[in-house]
# Entry
Amino acid sequence: MAGKSLTIWCNAQFSADAERILKEGTRKHRLVRAAGAASVLTAGGEDSALESADIAFGQPDAGQCVRSENLKWIEVTSAGYTRYDNEPFREELRRRGAVFTNASSVFSEPCAQHALAMMLALGRRLPGALDEQRGERRWLFSELRSESRLMAGETVLMLGFGAIGRRLAELLAPFRMKIFAVRRKAYSEAGVHVISEERVSSVIAEADHVINILPDNESTRNYVNARRLSWCKRGAKFYNIGRGTTVDQGALIEALESGKLGAAYLDVMEPEPLPPSHPLWTTRNCHITPHTAGGRSDQDETLVRHFLKNLAAFETGAGAGEFADRVI
# Structure
């Protein structure tokens, strides 16, 4: 692709600074803006301009991507790629030698930090102290001190182990925890015991922290169900920074209300936004953030720079290993 002018289609909505960086970085190519815009979490619709594009950047319509024979590379502005995660899509891109990349490395750091923040907050009883400051303002010196826990020596089980899980494992390393992660292919990883699905029932029974990082697909929907929650040790803490559809929320509510789980932290739910009347808002020891784990103040600029780095690799005809966050 060296020296060739490319048509780059984009439907991502960016800040003014990020838009300036994108235009400057693609100045030797033709940058085409879609008629409609999409966000990180919202898919875009079909757009006629996509059909003549060499590259798509943003959240293009998956079906139109399959039909657009000219497309040689697609980069989505998200870590998740559920709508593209199917065999017909993969087969078509492989057939024409096209590349598909996501932005998982853009969001792995904030998601990992967010999970660590809640783990520390729950261990140090910060939500309880904040409730008192905003409520009756009782001086719960003895209660909060005696219930505070150290993470050192505790056991963590991650459900899923991609970019977020790897970064979280790095952040947890100084706490000297025993870290397990389940994924389809078990292999050794520094500081992490990667296990197969067959071992989940025994390992989850020992885990003090169960962290769900699963994406949404046919095999993961309602993965965290009543049966798997029943395997948890009493008082364990559950965290969801994956997708809301991977959890049976009714079963989760029951596990919290019964005291089986000590606490839950949810950054993702089903549906989103979570209606004010939804029982999760008032469930015992359930703590909610509104899908902000991946948030970062420099998100748009970082997404654009991620794309431009991959564009440089694409321009030179680089091999598969040269693309950041290559999926296909």
Summary: DSSP finds eleven helices and 13 strands in the chain. The two ends are 19 Å apart (CA to CA).
